[in-house]
Amino acid sequence: xxxxxxxxxxxxxxxxxxxxxxxxxxxxxxxxxxxxxxxxxxxxxxxxxxxxxxxxxxxxxxxxxxxxxxxxxxxxxxxxxxxxxxxxxxxxxxxxxxxxxxxxxxxxxxxxxxxxxxxxxxxxxxxxxxxxxxxxxxxxxxxxxxxxxxxxxxxxxxxxxxxxxxxxxxxxxxxxxxxxxxxxxxxxxxxxxxxxx
Amino acid sequence: xxxxxxxxxxxxxxxxxxxxxxxxxxxxxxxxxxxxxxxxxxxxxxxxxxxxxxxxxxxxxxxxxxxxxxxxxxxxxxxxxxxxxxxx
Lengths: 197, 88
Ligand SMILES: [Zn+2]
What we know:
The structure holds 2 protein chains of 2 kinds. Chain A has 10 helices and no strands. Chain A has helices at 11-22, 26-37, 40-56, 67-83, 95-102, 117-122, 125-133, 137-148, 153-160, 164-188. Chain A is an all-alpha fold. Chain A has 2 domains: 11-86, Rna Polymerase Sigma Factor, Chain: A, CATH 1.10.1740; 95-188, Arc Repressor Mutant, subunit A. Chain A is 64% helix and 0% strand. The longest helix of chain A has 25 residues, at 164-188. Chain B has 4 helices and no strands. Chain B has one domain (5-87). In chain B, helix 1 (16-27) runs parallel beside helix 3 (47-66) and helix 2 (32-45) packs across helix 3 (47-66). Chain B is 67% helix and 0% strand. The interface between A and B is large, with 47 and 40 residues. Zinc ion binds at residues 13, 19, 42, 46, 48-49 of chain B. Zinc ion binds next to helix 3 of chain B.
């Protein structure tokens, strides 16, 4: 929480911001927390901590700005600082090494698979969900923020504290990884991946 | 709809890297109205762009529609309010 305190809200104003602007996002917050932690209790704790922090730092929230993005940023930081260590992550990766790879904005936008749009549309929710959940947390995060929650690149840049160019390239890589997973499912399920009609 | 036929489109993209980056930005809603014009032209003229666009669009749609929201525990909102009451 490095924002400068802009003003002080009265108790009544605080309550009204909290109830009117923060609480309506609880569903999205929980969904994000669950997809980060894969654990119901951890997700609940993470959302609860986020809301308590949001209240404590409410004076650094500027009314009229995007409350959802502000809350997501707090949640993401709490996750990194407190939960990442203990959460049940499927893949342990060397973070430093991966970081230099996908923080480079220099990405070649190529189609990497012969996966077909029709096969993707035929897939079940579970297959899509499992494919998403199998991605490393930083890739999963950009897809959740962009495709599930509809944040703009600029909002994502603020939530994640990374430049917009990095948002764009990380998203592209994330979707390519996702497509590779989906292609695997498609082949396994016998969906058509190559033939043109 | 001649958008659905491939006959009039070139089969090789002049610059897939540039085109695909642009298409993905358009799909992510980053280009506004000017994006729609560019898109129309790309889809009409270039087969690789056409295919890439439809795949990327399908991916976004299934993510949005099929990654069902996790059901939020009923007691969560209440428990937040109680904790908050303690710190006020
Ligand atoms: Zn093209």
